[in-house]
Amino acid sequence: SHGQRDTAQILLMRGAKYLPDKNGITPLDLCVQGGYGETCEVLIQYHPRLFQTIIQMTQNEDLRENMLRQVLEHLSQQSESQYLKILTSLAEVATTNGHKLLSLSSNYEAQMKSLLRIVRIFCHVFRIGPSSPSNGNDMGYNGNKTPRSQVFKVRKVYDVVRKIDVKEMNFTKHAFINQTSHEQEPLELLWHSLDEWLVLIATELMKNKRDSANITSILLKQKGPDQQDATPTPSFATAGTEGRKELSTGAGELKTYDVPGKQEACADCQDVISMTANRLSAVIQAFYMCCSCQMPQGMTSPRFIEFVCKHDDVLKCFVNRNPKIIFDHFHFLLECPELMSRFMHIIKAQPFKDRCEWFYEHLHAGQPDSDMVHRPVNENDILLVHRDSIFRSSCEVVSKANCAKLKQGIAVRFHGEEGMGQGVVREWFDILSSEIVNPDYALFTQSADGTTFQPNSNSSVNPDHLNYFRFAGQILGLALNHRQLVNIYFTRSFYKHILGIPVNYQDVASIDPEYAKNLQWILDNDISDLGLELTFSVETDVFGAMEEVPLKPGGASILVTQENKAEYVQLVTELRMTRAIQPQINAFLQGFHMFIPPSLIQLFDEYELELLLSGMPEIDVNDWLKNTEYTSGYERGDQVIQWFWDVVEELTQEERVLLLQFVTGSSRVPHGGFAHIMGGSGLQNFTIAAVPYTANLLPTSSTCINMLKLPEYPSKEILKDRLLVALHCGSYGYTMA
């Protein structure tokens, strides 16, 4: 019961029988439950049949997976042949489970968990083998120069799949098995089945698209060229015999056409997708795990990338029909930017809460379990800082600390104080977030609205500025890693830099609203005959002196014209918002990415990143109402205005923040309340302007003057519906007043 290896050895040498106890628990059960690999080795020496029993235990959900890994890890280290035998046996069991999962008659939840559990164990054993990717050896060979492919080679195909039910084989289309060579990799059988399923579904999808196009063609041909716009849209009605449809033209006349089973085929295809999407996605996840365990850390298997590209349409169909698949099975998206880009629009359409959970699940994957108190292992892991020089002393200790340990937990103690714990950690983050924007360090400057900060293009007056920017990135990365909020807000453009999103001319408004208006005016007007004489060079303030900076090579001699003005505006924007502070951005990101991988943070947009870092601001609706102005025909007592404020009261806190962002471009209320909101030309109250109502018209806004352009909706219900659509789907575009 405690894995006494010597005791087991002595008993077996004396001929002790191997029997279960009165509860049916065997000695092997006890050893595996405790992770006693050495004792399991002894048992197998005397009873070789127990080897397969251990392999079959990988399917038992009641056994702790880490204990099974521990046992198999020990057994695999005994010899090269043992290592290959374990991998081959695990591959066979995984293949059998995968085939059962593809059988629609099996229990999805149980089979899915079983397959992924076995594959995780398989990959763990594979990695610790003599030629694991991490040790830098040739991936084609193990320590004894045995071809790596031999790990998967097994007996004849009928041996590998002998346990699979014949009906299941037929149902999952395994006819190809009879045509395979005498030697096969068992997992390759599973990947082949997966590929066949996806090809089959892709064929059906293409067929339905063609059928749909053919139906449309038939309908259009029945109309005369002059009737196509005037005739009502036709509809199909079942004619009573399969394969024939009655076409109602909307004019009281019925005509019959041969359109064999189009709707049924489409419905059948959708049913197949509904039944198979989750099962196939789980096998895809297993395929990715097996491909990944054969690659060096940080590299995505070329074979898997090719697989996703080949089946791109089907995988997108799965995700569009059930986006939860992304979070449940398509973890590979986070590890390969090329694949992520294909699904990013679908991912970002998922609820913010779901993406947050996915973010932290993968951020903390592989880390030891924590009680979230983050107590250090020993005294050396405590960050000892001085209150009177908290910024510099914190920078010094964090730069010397072990990055991996900081990811697991933070413990802070102020010099000369006894206090420790999460309260001290929160205080440390709070003070540091204020110190980061302390003007004495010249790292950040205030934006035009006075509530957000932007990297200072002249921060080099501080000789350590790049080290400090790197430290600032580390602090924000650590805060996000440990879900600690910081009391600091950046400009929208800086959040974009963190996310790798290109800036645009509208972002200039945060640092220079008047300049942003000028850029907007250039885009909105024909500048051909205005004599502006602009060139692709601009004057920039460098430490109080104006310098001419070309926007591109030879820019001083290139005139801005109606044709190239869009390029000019974009280059000016990049100069003001990116090029002028590129070293500072790079240093910050170097520190930030030590704790937050770029692949994970791109799950969010700039608004959501602000919420992750700084939390949800509290909004006082009464103060908001009291400091709102009305124009263009609206007055405080109008029915639409009353409906509007009723809706605001009903909104969630998150939706109120979205509304504030939508109208003002900021999620924060400045110190002092809504009476202190800044506009493009100084203090500017929140304003609601009347707009004539037309069906489905959405509210719009002009952020430079904090104006909500609210249509005169006929009912509160329509107003609320249109407002929520604008907040959730249209919060990224706005006009410049």
Automatic annotation (TrEMBL):
<keyword id="KW-0808">Transferase</keyword>
<keyword id="KW-0472">Membrane</keyword>
<dbReference type="GO" id="GO:0061630">
    <property type="term" value="F:ubiquitin protein ligase activity"/>
</dbReference>
<dbReference type="InterPro" id="IPR000569">
    <property type="entry name" value="HECT_dom"/>
</dbReference>
<dbReference type="GO" id="GO:0006511">
    <property type="term" value="P:ubiquitin-dependent protein catabolic process"/>
</dbReference>
<dbReference type="InterPro" id="IPR035983">
    <property type="entry name" value="Hect_E3_ubiquitin_ligase"/>
</dbReference>
<dbReference type="GO" id="GO:0000209">
    <property type="term" value="P:protein polyubiquitination"/>
</dbReference>
<feature type="compositionally biased region" description="Polar residues">
    <location>
        <begin position="228"/>
        <end position="238"/>
    </location>
</feature>
<keyword id="KW-0963">Cytoplasm</keyword>
<dbReference type="Pfam" id="PF00632">
    <property type="entry name" value="HECT"/>
</dbReference>
<dbReference type="GO" id="GO:0000139">
    <property type="term" value="C:Golgi membrane"/>
</dbReference>
<dbReference type="InterPro" id="IPR050409">
    <property type="entry name" value="E3_ubiq-protein_ligase"/>
</dbReference>
<feature type="domain" description="HECT">
    <location>
        <begin position="402"/>
        <end position="737"/>
    </location>
</feature>
<feature type="region of interest" description="Disordered">
    <location>
        <begin position="223"/>
        <end position="244"/>
    </location>
</feature>
<keyword id="KW-0677">Repeat</keyword>
<dbReference type="GO" id="GO:0061025">
    <property type="term" value="P:membrane fusion"/>
</dbReference>
<protein>
    <recommendedName>
        <fullName>HECT-type E3 ubiquitin transferase</fullName>
        <ecNumber>2.3.2.26</ecNumber>
    </recommendedName>
</protein>
<keyword id="KW-0040">ANK repeat</keyword>
<dbReference type="GO" id="GO:0007030">
    <property type="term" value="P:Golgi organization"/>
</dbReference>
<comment type="pathway">
    <text>Protein modification; protein ubiquitination.</text>
</comment>
<keyword id="KW-0833">Ubl conjugation pathway</keyword>
<feature type="active site" description="Glycyl thioester intermediate">
    <location>
        <position position="704"/>
    </location>
</feature>
<dbReference type="InterPro" id="IPR036770">
    <property type="entry name" value="Ankyrin_rpt-contain_sf"/>
</dbReference>
<dbReference type="GO" id="GO:0005634">
    <property type="term" value="C:nucleus"/>
</dbReference>
